[in-house]
Amino acid sequence: MAGHSHWANIAHKKGRADKKRGALFGQLSRAIIVAARNRGGDPAMNLALRYAIDKARKNSMPRDNIERAIRKGCGDLGPVDYAELTYEGYGPHGVAVMCDALTENRNRTGGEIRRAFETHGGNLGASGCVGWMFERKGLFTVPVAQVDEEKLFEIALEAGADDVALSGDLFEVTCSVDAFSQVGDTLEKHQIPTETAEFTRIPGNTVELDLEQGRQVLKLLEALQDNEDVQSVTANFSIPDDVMAILANEE
Question: Which domain holds residue 192?
């Protein structure tokens, strides 16, 4: 997962939010709406909602937008009809790609996702074509500067996490889906700050990419992530750190 998660961290730091702020706010709003719809509008009782709100705040989403999304998810502003969909396919060089979306228009979203794959040298596949390559996991990222590694390792594993690994300037804490709430609550209890807290997919194997191959794959991932309906994109590639550093400085 290191290659993909490293890309995700770089994409955030490069300021995609500034270039695509409207789409980003749409994605964040939908995550809040669905979390509130599924488990209620009280963040104290709804961990998914709490983390969705926290992510929105970290991306400078206005408070009014957050509150409106919560009310919409609770049904106060009329019915909500977002479908949760997963798209699967192959990018350039045989890289497996999974794309989670929330949409009120399946045909529109499916067409846009298909065009993104085709435009950037990939192919949208049938359901299940690459899903078997990934395992669903909970993921927390913690800034290295904010916590001692041994302390984090001890706390996370006692809470039920599977592993703590270093990825760039972040620690990645992974856990089973069932342990997500317990691990998240424990990190909060010990005042360990998380940069992200989400469900993700971890590949069983990765495709090694060079500079040009990496550039092609990242263009597809960025095109998918820029779609307002898309919540997350996961792929099974690995890029050496020195090559990733070059790509990180490209516009």
Answer: 134-203
